[in-house]
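WARN retry 2 of 3 for item q-0093 after timeout on previous attempt; input resubmitted unchanged.
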Amino acid sequence: MARPYWSGNVQISLVAFGVSLYVATESKGQISFHQISHRTGERIRHQKVLESAAESKEATTAVESDEIVKGYEYSKGKYVIIEPSELENLRIPSKHTIAVSQFVDVSDLNPEYIEKPYFVTPENDMSAEAFNVVRQALVKSGKAAIGKVSFSGRENVIALVPAGADSPGMMAYTLRYQNELRNRADYFRDIKQPAIDADSLQLAETLIARMSAELDIGKFEDGYETAVKALVEAKVNHLPVPIDEAPARQRIGNVVSLMDALRKSIGSDKASAKKPPKSVKEAPAKGIGIVKTPAKSAKRKSA
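OK item q-0093 returned
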């Protein structure tokens, strides 16, 4: 198993136990581009040079990596040098301990706050009992533990939730700060809200019910990557390059009414539609929900 990204204690009042956090995602993209000189076809290499040399456009040698240090610009053009050892020794309690400050309903974790997921395991066997008790309590209460943890050059707000009722592990999600989110009202305030026709709403509910299924993220593939591969193959083999064709815009005279579109979508031209089956569960209005363990048949990992 991979090395933990972070290890430390979870502190809940007087209860403490060790945990390890592992990055839950990985990049699977296979397409990458290089910068190439259009004139010669050679690959472009980047070098780090002194700012004064770059501004004067004089030929200069690259600055060696062991000569480069971090600097904070405290005034225009003035920097204070920060040594790596000074950053490592910053006095931040959350570098070592996730101190839980409160518990919230899992449904209160709005998706826009979620930044990155991590797998959470007990750090050792001695921590397993407290880990399991807290995990099960979170399952039964439907709560998430909120605290702060310091890594990756910042102090992050973090949420701990069970990784599904049947899973022995937990998930951690770093959360964005409020000031990192743009004001949604700036984007939503001009949306018009016309009156909703009851029949159209019922047809829409029926369409949703018919198309509802358990999420299988493994069946989705990156269409952009597939298209780029087709483009590369065509150019390498001197074949016609595939070109995107935008769908034709509908003319005003050919616009299908919303009611007709809904009826055709559910395969019915009747004036009324049946109500959605009672067995269809209503989706929660917000929140990340409890993370379920992926099915064994899934080909790809999901986080």
